[in-house]
Amino acid sequence: MNRPRGRLRTEMQRESGAVTPLELFFDLVFVFALTGVTAFMAEDLTWHGMLRGLLIFGLLWWGWVCYSWVGNVARADEGVTRPALFAAMAVMFVLALSIPESFDDLPGGLHGPVVVAVCYFLFRGVHLVLFWIISAGDPGLRGQLLRFAPSMLVATTLLLVAAGTDGPTQTALWAAALVADYLGNYLGGARGWRLRSAGHFAERHGLILIVALGESIVAVGVGVAKLPISLPIVATAVLGLVLSATLWWSYFDVTALAAERAFAATPDADRPRLARDAYSYLHLPMVAGVVLLALGLKKVLAYVGDPVHHDLAEPLKGVGLTALVGGLTLYLLGHAGFTWRVLHVVNVRHAVPVVALLSMLGIGPHIPALATLAVLTAAMAGLVAFETTRFAEDRHRIRHEH
């Protein structure tokens, strides 16, 4: 259904709607921001730096989530939605450029932390205005937006206050801003949200996961761009690619297909709540895990590819090891939570590799960094091989049934 309102025309999304090229273009700006988060943590490889990087990611993720809901209600490439998305992309791009100054302002130019806070306010503001236009004639959606707006205002206010502080106080205010945004939305309920296409929503989140996995591969490529090619670099690059491929396989081979069908079969009244829990919230740890994995891969490459500053036998320790192991663990836990929420299946098979992965936090500091990566890759490849062969019949049915 189209809604002509002069220049404020919108076209409602169809049940059979698919992700549009404009949404993919929007996601490319998001992946640029993800590369900024990885670089931010790599530049400040401390526990505090990693925490701050995850806070920046949480801010970016929630902004992206807001627009994933917009595109499911109104077509992204039609009417007023198109220029609004371009405006949001411009704001996100400026925010991504400001990531290095999210907490500490550099000499000269604009004040970085203030720029980040203002960009986030504008990014969310465009979303609310656009949704307000789309929701004309829908009192339920309008009411949901009114319940949604206070958490955004509180979060942006806290970010502006944080811009005038530094150190742990600044980090704590950022954390409070994210808690206000995430918790405020959850407490606001989901009864007023609209979800017109289960297929579109599932596809959109699957694509953003692919984009994140692509960023992990980019991190490998960028990490060796200025180093002479060598056998250790080749081995690390191949292992990193295989590791990323196992994460892709674990989600897209069966889980994504089965989840989308279960999601589409959910009654309309229950879909928004399921979409919020399974996709908006439980995809967060999966994508965050991939971002941490990219950081870990970047550090492994630095160890094996730079003989001037590192020895090939040098182990991966501290934040780098935690990022590599913790990223995979976070991904598996998010995957298990998503499977449970959508399919009502407790995936106990992931408990074994999670325990094995966590054990590497104790073993990793005593073996070469490349060996740590090889063990983790073998563990994930073994999990994928086991599930593929053990459940071959179910896998064939899910992948080929119509």
Q: In terms of quaternary structure, what is this?
A: single chain
Low-confidence stretches: none
User: What is the share of helical residues?
Assistant: over 70%
Which percent range describes the beta-strand content?
under 5%
The pLDDT mean sits at: 90
Please tally the β strands and state the result: 2
Class from helix and strand fractions: mainly alpha
Largest sheet: 2 strands, antiparallel
What is the overall number of helices?
Answer: 15
* Strand neighbour order, sheet with most strands: 1-2
What does it look like?
It is a single chain. This protein is mainly α. Helices cover 74% and strands 1% of the residues. It is built from 15 helices and two strands. The chain has helices spanning 21-43, 47-73, 81-97, 112-134, 139-162, 167-187, 198-223, 231-252, 255-264, 271-281, 283-305, 318-343, 351-363, 369-390, 392-400; strands spanning 2-3, 10-11. Strands 1-2 form a two-stranded antiparallel sheet. A hairpin with a 6-residue loop joins strand 1 and strand 2 (10-11). Helix 2 packs parallel to helix 6 (167-187). It is globular. The protein starts with a strand and ends with a helix. The mean pLDDT is 90.
